[in-house]
Amino acid sequence: MSIELSEPDVNGLGEAVAALRGWQSDASPLQLHPGDLGWFWRAGPEATATAVRTWSRDGRILAVGLLDGPGLLRLTIARDARRDEELARSMLADVTDPDRGVLPAGRASIEAPMTARLQDLLAGAGWHADEPWTPLHRDLAQPVPPPGVRVERVGPGLAAESTAVHRSAFDGSTFTEERWHTMAAGLPFADARTLLAYDDGGAAVACVTVWSAGAGRPGLLEPMGVHRDHRGRGHGRAISVAAAAALRDMGASSAMVCTPASNTAAVATYRAAGYEPRALVRDMTRDA
User: Rounded to an integer, what distance in angstroms lies between the CA atom of residue 158 and that of residue 163?
Assistant: First the structure.
């Protein structure tokens, strides 16, 4: 049976999330995670469904993609299908033809597993490797030490304070208390926690949301930010340690995060929190 490209409705998102959960493995490099869909969910379930694409054969999902911004497709593929020639050629046709409803014409980028056959086909079609990103990984086999600051789990009562820290940390952020509630009502947040760190004076200084993919699988930090008025004081390291502890408490095998390799300060922060860098990854980009 041929490969089928689909855009699930809201009720179909659960199947995509379940597929992503099942594909997470410490043996694989960082890839699209249920938490990526969970973080996108802040825009609402309908917007999330509109941004998701799946590729299936005989009713089984083989690949899941997320349109995570204009011209950016982030996707991953089942481990046993990454060298599947039929799947790769079908996906290439879908992502290069704007009429298929995946990517628009002009400049576009695709994040895909580096070992996937699709990577080879994209290169042969004129796509090129873009700027490198650094995945970082912390094994959670052993207990995580205390972060050294007070950390609270965010519920409805702390959502406004947490999102204010996030907006300070990220220029142009539109993450509001209302959007936190929308995210928290989403399917992936059943396996997630938002954490808020405070300094000795009681000021909220850093926040992070962590996403589990289930016991024995790697969890994801997405996103982590430090209030602009409290940077350079170790709060990013502290909240990243707290994130690892929370994921271990949820049964995750490891904690993972990815940041542009050019953001040396972020890489240094995660390394100070016990996260080890892995091999660089790159999107494939098509120029306009």
Answer: 9
Exposure class string for 131-162: b at 16+ Cβ within 10 A, else e: eebbbbbbebeeebeebebebbebeeebbebb
Average pLDDT over residues 168-196: 98
Q: Which string of DSSP letters, residue by residue, matches 80-136?
A: GGTT-HHHHHHHHHHHH-GGGSSS-SSSEEEE--TTSHHHHHHHHTT-EEEEEEEEE
Contact (Cβ atoms closer than 8 angstroms) between residue 89 and residue 121: yes
Third-level CATH fold of 4-131: Aminopeptidase (3.40.630)
- Report the C-alpha gap between 113 and 175 in whole angstroms: 29
Domain ranges across the chain: 4-131, 138-281
pLDDT of residue 4: 98
CATH number of 138-281: 3.40.630.30
